[in-house]
Amino acid sequence: MRLGHTDSGHPSICFVICDNYADIEVVLNSFQNELTSLRNNDEFRHKMALKLAEYACFLVVKIGDEVAGFVAVYANDVLTRTAYIPFIAVDPAYRGKGVGRLLFDKACDLAIKKDMLYLKLEVNKSNNNAIAFYNKMGMRCIGEASQSSFYYIKKIGDYL
After folding, report:
1. Which uninterrupted H or E stretch holds 31?
2. Residue 143: which H helix or E strand, with range?
3. Are 49 and 28 within 8 A, CB to CB?
4. Taking the CA of residue 1 as centre, how many other CA atoms within 13 Å lie in the half-sphere pointing to its CB?
């Protein structure tokens, strides 16, 4: 997809929802060095792309012609009304420029539209940059998910 520029001359920002597993797999492959769980595992990325295409909302942010980042959100737990982010990633060239916040805010919006009350994710204990980002986004740690990771959660909705 070719995107234009805004009147100011800056590249335009575009959000694209991917629901085709092949497109999702391309994005996962391009971010494999940014996410430990995706590294050097073609079969896992393929299976994950199939699962995300079927059950998640997969949102890509493009700046100009470049994919700047993506987020995947499962918003289908109707019992606990908790949405889950299995992946959120920003290309290193776009870090510190608000792309992560845009993706996180869109994930919250998507989850709220699906009547979710909470947004949850798992983060590696050694990923200090991600932990700082999630804290900045108003998430709080609710405990260990495993020996190497924490669960973080944020209340996003309030329904009567």
Report:
1. none
2. strand 140-146
3. yes
4. 17
Residue 3, pLDDT score = 34
Q: Which residue has the tokens 């916040």?
A: 101
- Would you state the pLDDT for residue 9? 52
Using CB atoms within 10 Å of the CB of residue 152, give its burial: 0 to 12 exposed, 13 to 18 middle, 19+ buried: buried
Instruction: Burial-class residue 110 by CB neighbours within 10 Å (0-12, 13-18, 19+).
Output: buried
Other C-beta atoms closer than 10 Å to the C-beta of 50 total 14
pLDDT tens for 93-132 read 999 999 999 999 999 999 999 999 999 999 999 999 999 9
- From the list 121, 142, 143, the residue with the least C-alpha distance to 133 is 121
What pLDDT sits at residue 40? Answer: 78
Q: Where do runs of H (alpha helix) occur along the chain?
A: 21-30, 42-55, 99-113, 128-136
Domains of the chain: 13-155 (3.40.630.30)
Asked if 114 contacts 75 with a C-beta cutoff of 8 angstroms, the reply is yes
- Reported pTM: 0.89
